[in-house]
Design goal:
Number of helices: 5
Strand order of the largest sheet: 1-3-2-4-5-12-11-8-6-7
Order of helices and strands: HEEHEEHEHEEEEEEEH
Low-confidence stretches: 5-20
Radius of gyration: 21 Å
Distance between the termini: 47 Å
Number of strands: 12
CATH architecture of one domain: 3-Layer(aba) Sandwich
């Protein structure tokens, strides 16, 4: 069959529609000031902790304050609106092909294999990874996926356990009732990742976690009996995963740790993981600084003495949750994501 010139030109004109991502379903921030020549990709996609609000905020800080190019990826619906419940969606996954570092706050995603390949290949290149909160249970792959070994409930604990050092275990503190006070591990007080990090506090509860022996514990989480920074330490016993009963704060669970992991390709991924990191946690300056420090450390750059983590624009995140937030008897208004918002609206 011979294609005439007009038909050929018409076919070529359609190619961008098929191969290019929608321009408004992801965000890119060009570096400001002293550009570092590095590209940080931030991946949002969780149903509860408002990663769709946290990731643009962090991306702006990294671009405006620190000279990194940043790209933020989202879960969206068929019309391009942010839909955190769409576990199969990730926008512009091809951006991961040029990622020098990844920051991720995702939960139970089951992206198509063609999207997973971009993420998988980036990991195999040895890019540094910063995993926040539910990144420990990032994936719940569909049956038959080539990447099923990375599902959170895989025998080896999936991507979370293999790379970050833990998968989902349990809420150790009482969910939506007991917050977390960060306590710096004495042996880690001079660790570069903790430069300028002093008073970590977040309204999310402590997760149960037992990172492997090759992890460097940086911060432990004190379970506090309330949701305010001045809340007293909680004191009660519960059984851990091993079936041993212990006081919730003796010993305190790790909430921040680092690792260096050799992947299947033989490259090493520098990893920083924290089980904190909801958007509402990241109003805490020290927690934001920890994430920024993690980027510098992961990329082999000198970590600033006290990294500038001032907001670029306004940041007033929703409290985490999955409800509609209209219950006036709920003092914290735990609620889900804002409807009708496109990524471009967050620019």
């Amino acid at each position: 069959m011979i294609m005439n010139r007009r038909t050929l030109l018409s076919a070529l004109a359609l190619l961008p529609l098929a191969t290019c991502p929608a321009a408004d379903d992801f965000l890119t921030y060009e570096p400001k000031g002293d550009a570092k020549g590095k590209h940080v990709v931030l991946i949002s996609g969780d149903e509860e902790y408002r990663s769709e609000e946290a990731m643009p905020m962090l991306a702006k800080i990294l671009s405006e304050r620190h000279g990194f190019k940043t790209t933020v990826l989202f879960s969206v619906d068929k019309d391009g609106h942010i839909d955190s419940n769409n576990q199969a969606s990730i926008t512009n996954s091809a951006a991961l092909d040029s990622a020098d570092a990844i920051i991720m706050l995702i939960r139970f995603r089951h992206w198509p294999d063609e999207d997973m390949k971009h993420f998988h290949d980036a990991v195999q290149r040895g890019v540094p990874i910063i995993g926040l909160r539910t990144a420990t249970h990032a994936f719940n792959m569909d049956k038959g996926s080539k990447y099923g070994a990375w599902a959170w409930n895989n025998q080896e604990g999936g991507f979370g356990r293999i790379f970050l050092g833990e998968t989902w275990v349990s809420h150790w503190g009482k969910h939506r009732a007991e917050a977390t006070k960060g306590v710096i591990e004495p042996a880690a007080k001079d660790n570069a990742l903790l430069r300028g990090v002093t008073d970590i506090f977040g309204t999310t509860d402590v997760y149960e976690a037992a990172p492997p022996a090759d992890s460097v514990i940086l911060v432990r989480g004190q379970v506090v009996a309330g949701m305010e920074p001045g809340s007293a330490p909680a004191s009660y016993k519960k059984k851990n995963k091993a079936g041993t009963e212990q006081d919730v704060n003796e010993p305190m669970m790790p909430v921040v740790w680092s690792r260096e992991v050799k992947n299947e390709s033989g490259k090493t991924n520098k990893v920083l993981c924290t089980t904190m990191g909801a958007a509402s946690d990241l109003v805490n300056e020290s927690l934001r600084r920890l994430v920024v420090n993690g980027v510098y450390w992961g990329l082999g750059l000198d970590v600033p003495a006290s990294a500038d983590v001032g907001y670029v624009g306004e940041f007033k995140p929703l409290m985490y949750g999955t409800k509609d937030g209209t219950d006036e008897k709920d003092p914290h208004r735990f609620r889900g994501f804002k409807r009708g918002v496109k990524p471009a609206d967050l620019k």
